[in-house]
Amino acid sequence: MSETTVRAGVPVLCVLGSPGVPGGGLPNRPNLERLSGRARVEYADGDSLAALLPVADVLLVWDFASDAVRRAWPGPGRRPEWVHTASAGVDRLLSCPELVDSKTVITNARGVFDQPIAEYVAGLVLALAKDFRGSWELQRQRRWQHRETMRLAGTHAIVVGSGPIGRAIGRTLMALGVEVELVGRTERSGDPEFGRIHASGVLGTLLPSADWVVCAAPLTESTAGMFDAAAFARMKPTARFVNVGRGAHVVQEDLVEALVSHRIAAAALDVFADEPLPSGSPLWDVPGLLVSPHMSGDTVGWRDDLARQFCDNFDRWAAGEPLFNVVDKQLGYVPDRSAP
Amino acid sequence: MSETTVRAGVPVLCVLGSPGVPGGGLPNRPNLERLSGRARVEYADGDSLAALLPVADVLLVWDFASDAVRRAWPGPGRRPEWVHTASAGVDRLLSCPELVDSKTVITNARGVFDQPIAEYVAGLVLALAKDFRGSWELQRQRRWQHRETMRLAGTHAIVVGSGPIGRAIGRTLMALGVEVELVGRTERSGDPEFGRIHASGVLGTLLPSADWVVCAAPLTESTAGMFDAAAFARMKPTARFVNVGRGAHVVQEDLVEALVSHRIAAAALDVFADEPLPSGSPLWDVPGLLVSPHMSGDTVGWRDDLARQFCDNFDRWAAGEPLFNVVDKQLGYVPDRSAP
């Protein structure tokens, strides 16, 4: 199974990455050429992972949509020192209590997705403001029907998530003339770009003013289900909701009800509780709901960026230097002070 | 027909604005309350305009999609002193040689549409980069199909048109990380925002580097048909073309051929040689072509903005002050020095 020249004593790098992930997340193996001769690379899928983990020094979770780590994580004894996931979210890894309680360090792909996701959200916001889906539906029907659209500049957005993705979204919307308020776990003032960052506890008081509500938060116990009927009830009937966080941030049936009853105007979801979204899901044809297949951050070259980032961190690990993007396993994300 | 209190000696303001314009441009009459008692307002449609023009001091072309002015413009003798059109483009008015040769001053709606059109173009560019139409087509089919998309930041755009609309487009794309080059009638250097502005004569040498080509130029003799087979042949196969200028900027059959043959990757048209686009037009279903019904600048409140702008200029006219947004009838647009 080894892909590199094996030398006695080189560390074992286990890569969880089955080709052909349903829905097409990361079908290819990462480019780890840079590690040639410096690691024994063993590829695992969900079935073979349990046998490999006890001999692995490092685990690269390339197939970040897999639940295999939780199932395969070994009991006390020999375990990987370090787990890196090729994703920004670490909610799947942290759903394994034995991994959380272990001394194993977790790092993530913080940084790779910021600008792509910010562009994607800005595009969705503009598409909703200008009703592009309506225009293209009319185009299919060969119908010329002029409508007035919304001016984006001067509207008001609440971005939930004050990490690098939320910040990039906020920055991009501000560049388009939108007034942005950022919501994080705790309140902070004097942020050089956003001024006051609000605590998520006061979200309810902020929602009534928002034209746009964007979720880009990490999924943690305190953020799961935060967009529920009560939250949608506080939004304006003209508000639009965008989720690029995790499906479980939203109580999906409450969102459907808010859309069907015109409690809010529209929504765009790139993430779902159940991915790939089953073809029988009612979400596919809710009026006013735009669906896309968890691709907001995945611009051409993203796999190379993810592999490069892992190799950079591997260099540090091999040299005994501190890793970057170390996840605080209690908080559920990489705190700001750990930014690379 | 008078809508205001008529006083002896008040000027006659003729408003060309038939309600129910096909395609829905400006169905309502302008709000001219501010002029109450200061002008005798006479509403005209295409049929009654010829009878009213010889008695009108001012003509407000509210239905800017109408060709009536060319047909109804009076011969030598009594003519309106001033014609204002509620549009940025003045190509329809300037298609009347007797109006061009007369002493009548023409003003336009320069300024009202800049930010809305810039947002619309940025939205189209992002929608093309992120393949939103592809996602929503897959949504209709209930298919989850992950794709990689294009990162917008770092791409290269050519914006043809260096007036306020082209500049707003350029500024907005730059805020999204796009490198922008502006093309105007003549070369200028040292522009505070864009550095060198290129002359349209060198467009052919600029096109091969563009990821995005945006047309926001005034329609004049020298810009009509500028996007033809030769222009598309110079673009990259991955280039995308956006037209928010006038339909006649593009040789439509050449664009269709460029799309069908994959000479360029995609295009978005908001304007057409023939508007409303007839339901039998082949343009509705060209692969890779997004069609919208000439609405890029028309955000909620645009009619009020247009009426307010006209009334502001009317105040100047009534006070004998110089008008703003005076069109250079030879150039075919409002030169920069005349900006309000």
TrEMBL record, chains A, B:
Domain D-isomer specific 2-hydroxyacid dehydrogenase NAD-binding: 123-296
SUPFAM superfamilies for this protein: NAD(P)-binding Rossmann-fold domains
Listed GO MF terms: NAD binding; oxidoreductase activity, acting on the CH-OH group of donors, NAD or NADP as acceptor
Keyword Oxidoreductase: yes
Cited PROSITE patterns: D_2_HYDROXYACID_DH_3
Record key words, sorted: NAD, Oxidoreductase
CDD domains linked to this entry: 2-Hacid_dh_1 (cd05300)
InterPro entries named in the record: D-isomer_DH_CS, D-isomer_DH_NAD-bd, NAD(P)-bd_dom_sf
Protein name, entry field: Phosphoglycerate dehydrogenase
Record organism: Streptomyces radiopugnans
